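User: Can you help me understand a structure? I only have the sequence.
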Amino acid sequence: MKATSEKVRQYFDKIPDEWDSLYSDKNWFIKNINKHLRKGLFKRYELTFQHCGEISGARVLDIGCGTGLYSLEFAKRGASKVVGIDIAPAMIAFVQQRAREFMVQDRCEFICDDFLNHPFKENFDIIVSLGLFDYIQDPEPYFKKISSLTNHRFLASFPKDSLFWGTQRKIRYRWLKKCPLYFYNHDGLMRLYKEANFMEIDVLSVDRGFFAFGTKS
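Assistant: Let's start by predicting it. Here is the structure, written out as tokens:
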């Protein structure tokens, strides 16, 4: 697990600008290309804010926050506190600067650490993890800890395997980028949520992956 985490950290520590550019409005042409080639990225963003529940006054945890697309949007929509955690120092430096630019730094905290090892001192109303589980070999410890940190809602995305796109991603990540990559299925995700004591679970098929959410109350 440590070796896998280190490979993921090394990969993402090199690409904050490249990663952020997938969603950026700076280049209208590139963004519109991405909306067609990477539909799942934009759809899961839409679904997150459609299904996350009340944001105003909420405490939010963003696991694998990356460049802060979701963290900053939660803060801008009125969350009382947003905590983002990521293992890549360059990602944390990037999102801290963005929080200052959007003037939401007073309600945001960004932590460079491994989620499983970090000693959180509070619980959260909303926990999100968008794009993290692609790189997690064993998701059960994550679900167990996530369950202990919220009495409300957990939303996440997961990649699914396929002959064309799955193979293409395996080649791109595992072989070319030397970054681990893992896939999920509908029944397995339902089991993970149920065993973590979430209810009202829904697992939606979205382009090349899944968007899943569950609530406790």
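Now, to help you interpret it: Residues 2-24+54-215 form a domain with the Rossmann fold fold (CATH 3.40.50.150). The chain has one domain: 2-24+54-215. Let me know which part you'd like to focus on.
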